[in-house]
Design brief:
The chain has about 70 residues and is mainly α. It is about 75% helix and about 0% strand.
Length: about 70
């Protein structure tokens, strides 16, 4: 029996949105969501940069030149 974690998280987020709409105005709720989206984008780019640096360090340690990468 597997637990559908994405579905649980998704439904909980809708519940959280419903509770937030009772306490805040539509403009401030929109501001929260855009701020969250921007923060998520920065975290994603930081993760991409971190992984890229790790890949290059691993290639250097194995004697592979970074110019051989297809990207």
């Amino acid at each position: 029996c597997t637990v559908p974690y994405p579905a649980i998280i998704f439904s909980n987020m809708w519940g959280f949105l419903g509770l937030m709409s009772l306490q805040t105005t539509a403009g401030s709720l929109f501001s929260y969501f855009t701020s969250f989206g921007g923060t998520a984008a920065y975290i994603a780019w930081a993760a991409i940069t971190f992984v890229q640096l790790r890949v290059r360090a691993a290639a250097k340690k194995q004697g592979i030149d970074a110019k051989e990468f297809p990207f």
